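Narrative of accomplishments. A recurring question from our advisory board has been how the design workflow behaves on a single, concrete structure rather than in aggregate. To address it, we present the structure tokens for one chain from the evaluation set, followed by the sequence designed for it. No filtering or post-editing was applied between the two.
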């Protein structure tokens, strides 16, 4: 037993000595470095493979859980014997307002004029002229709106659309072209000054026309007020009347 124990001690000593010799040799270090390099390469390979697989699964509509179509839901419902899922309701487009032909013609012409005036407002740099153009836009829009609210005014408004508004736009286009020349000659400067003065007249005329369009409505209102006052006095409800005589009878 002692003899075997001595042999085991010598074997362990030799193993340790061999390990020390290998660690001190360059061959062993090269072998360790090589093994570490192979391990890193293998790890990189598996990481790249996993990333590529994940990208393919995300780009595949059949495997993408977010991309669930109504068709797939219906098929599943049919397999289970249940009712098919209804497709999502689409919002209905807003219904376009329709007007009588004569009113529609006024509305369409008013929209074209509004677009041209807005373009001139954006291109003309003179702040005073821009302010006048803005007033023209606001008043002309109200005139067009009156045609919708009171079609009986259409004949009066058509004259405004056939001459006054197109002529105003024509003069403003001329003003814009002359101002773009960058020259202060007598002809250009004088003409531009005349157009600026004309705009003041046009703004006043547009407002006067809008006011005249409400003449019929004003007359109707005055008539209603007069009838109302007469009835209130008759029933004894008006200020200064005596007693209340049979209200509502």
């Amino acid at each position: 037993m002692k003899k075997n124990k001595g042999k085991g001690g010598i074997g362990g000593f030799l193993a340790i000595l061999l390990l020390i010799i290998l660690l001190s040799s360059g061959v062993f270090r090269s072998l360790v470095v090589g093994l570490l390099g192979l391990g890193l390469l293998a790890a990189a390979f598996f990481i790249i493979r996993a990333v590529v697989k994940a990208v393919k699964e995300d780009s595949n509509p059949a495997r993408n859980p977010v991309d669930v179509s109504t068709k797939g839901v219906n098929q599943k419902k049919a397999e289970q014997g249940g009712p098919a899922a209804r497709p999502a309701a689409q919002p209905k487009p807003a219904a376009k307002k329709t007007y009588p032909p004569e009113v529609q013609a006024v509305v369409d012409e008013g929209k074209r004029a509004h677009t041209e005036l807005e373009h001139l407002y954006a291109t003309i740099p003179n702040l005073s002229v821009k302010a006048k153009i803005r007033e023209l836009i606001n008043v002309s829009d109200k005139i067009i709106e009156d045609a919708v609210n009171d079609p009986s005014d259409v004949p009066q408004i058509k004259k405004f659309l056939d001459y006054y508004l197109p002529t105003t736009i024509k003069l403003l286009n001329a003003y814009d072209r002359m101002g773009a020349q960058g020259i202060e000659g007598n002809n250009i400067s004088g003409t531009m000054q005349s157009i600026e003065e004309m705009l003041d007249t046009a703004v006043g005329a547009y407002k006067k026309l809008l006011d005249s369009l409400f003449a019929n409505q004003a007359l109707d209102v005055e008539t209603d007020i007069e009838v109302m006052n007469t009835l209130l006095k008759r029933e004894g409800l008006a200020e200064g009347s005596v007693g209340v005589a049979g209200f509502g009878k």
